[in-house]
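Hey, I'm writing a tutorial for new members on how sequence and structure tokens pair up, and I'd like a real worked example in the thread rather than a made-up one. If someone can provide the structure for the chain below, I'll link this post from the tutorial.
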Amino acid sequence: MLPDSPKASAALSRRCLQALLREKGGTKSKDLSGQIDEVLDKLPRPIAEEVDAVRHIGNFSAHAIKSQSTGEIVPVEPGEAEWTLDVLDALFDWYYVQPKKQEARRAALDAKLEDAGKPPMKKPSGEA
């Protein structure tokens, strides 16, 4: 989608972000801006600093926003659409990939500890 239409790519990225924040971020707000506000403090700083870019770039694709200096509709540039995909990639890694990697590492170490007659790793409070 990106090479054919940066605008469409950015619009889909915006929708994907909203679905991801509802599903994995546990957000309750109805609008994307509120959902982003809900998760900013829960994300790693590098991701948190860029997640709102997806909303803004997506808004350029979803709404006819005009330049105040030229009066022309502001387009979505290919680099901006690619940026939204990079942010989504980082979020997918954070919400899906890293927890599975951590789970596998913990399980392997716990098995090694058990084999050595040691108790398993301590779990943070709130974790079952």
